[in-house]
Amino acid sequence: MRRPLGKWGAMAFSLGLLGFIYSRLDFRSFAERILNADPLWLGIAFLCFGPQVFVTTLRWRVMIQSLAPVDTSRALRMVMAAKALNALVPSKLGEMSKAYFLRKETGAGVRIGFPAVLLEKILDLGGLCFWMLLGIFLAPEIQEPMVIGASIGLGVLAASAASIVLPQLGLGLKEKFRGKLAEVMFGWAELTRSWVERPGRLMTIVSLSVTLWGLHMLQIYLFFPVLRQSMDVSIALAYIPLSLLAGLLPITLAGMGTRDAALILLFSPWADASTMAGVGLLCTMRYWSDTLMGVPFLHNYTAQIGRKGEGEKLHDPGSQ
User: How far is CA 10 from CA 22, 41, 294, in A?
Assistant: First the structure.
């Protein structure tokens, strides 16, 4: 019962926080921003989904290439089906299902699948923080939230590097862990070793992570011209990632509410609350559009698993 309760609790918190935010808005100004949105810029922004999906798929395939090789079409199916499951859990934890899909596709167990998904999330945080630090470096004036962001960003980058380097040192894993956890830790070391031993592959994975989050930053930045609001690129790079990090807190559904509040607060010197609430709404549309695109792939997986289960029953003498 805990998972459903957690989902409904996150949804209730999101709705309550959004209700509070919208009750404080100048709703007429907010409606005008939305109704006067530029459809051309909106179309360009949503075209970013194509390269985002391509880069995500390519990175996933390169990450697991040595230990659980898959072709591009199967990697795409895993990536998109996992996106659909994000609608059911907070903090994009639906993407953990890629470990299950990887086992179904290749036979690779939790030893490879679970570390691969965790490392992918770490690389995502690293890519996001890279762009945040770049924005802070380029900002014309350093402000207090930027100092906080820089501290978080440097910490995340250091932790990301450590997650790849430290497993190669061993550090007595056999003595420290037992059972499934030891299996995951060994798989983590094995996976990262396959990258470190091929520096070109490691650089490709890192470059794809930075490119992917550059595409995400571009898409969200385009929401400003959609709402006919000018915004300095360095300010956007510094504060959009901080807002997205707030949305990753596992207390809301899909970051709704926390992300919106962070956008309004952080960008208040440059844009009014109605505009930033509009950006928050477009970010929510972006999230759910991404999720809905994965539904056909998830349906395909569930149908395939159902057919396989029926086939196993037919071949089981005990079921006759």
Answer: 18, 32, 22
